[in-house]
Design brief:
Layout (H helix, E strand, L loop, with lengths): L10 E3 L5 E3 H17 L3 E5 L3 E3 L2 E12 L1 H6 L4 E9 L2 E10 L3 E6 L4 E3 L2 E2 L13 E4 L6 H16 L3 E2 L4 H10 L4 E4 L4 H13 L3
Parallel strand pairs: 3-5, 11-12, 11-13
Antiparallel strand pairs: 1-2, 3-4, 5-6, 6-7, 7-8, 8-9, 9-10
Helix pairs in contact: 4-5
Length: 204
Amino acid sequence: VILESTNDIQVDYKGTTDLVTNIDREVESLIIEKINSHFPDHTILAEESGLNQKAPDYLWVIDPLDGTTNFVHGYPSFGVSIGLLIKGIPSLGVVMELPSKNLYSAYKGNGAYKNGKPINVSKNSNITKCLLATGFPYDHGERWKANMRLFEFFTDKTQGVRRLGAASVDLCHLACGYIDGFWELDLKPWDTAAGIVIVSESGG
């Protein structure tokens, strides 16, 4: 749906720079429909439609299009993120990176994978040899300023800091060892629910 929709994007604004599109909503509806068809009693938290409270032990957390701004501008770094918490514990994570179609997945206790092949975090512990990634909140207030100070600090101490604009994808790149560290302030549950499991199961 996402890759076939580049000529039919309708953009709305949740904030000055916080975009949402008809594609976000369409993909979210499709994912919710699929989960409900298999697990009708499970609770679902989705970025655009919010919380649908049902059985408390199983919570699906969905970001239907992480990196919406990138998607709208045609910048090739965005993804779909689906995580599952079982009794409050992040237990399953799946992220489809787009437009590359790289599929990252992990289940608690069973390792992490990219396109079916095991992945592991970097073993680099020397900060001067590290490549990092970060992101910035939409609200350009004090938290944004604090992150700018961190950005300056780590840019000076490391081999570089990248800012790609999709936290779930950043976490998958961390799990693969492409970057050595990642930080971002004010992330939401749907930004991290899948990525946390993937990073943890890759040794992070």
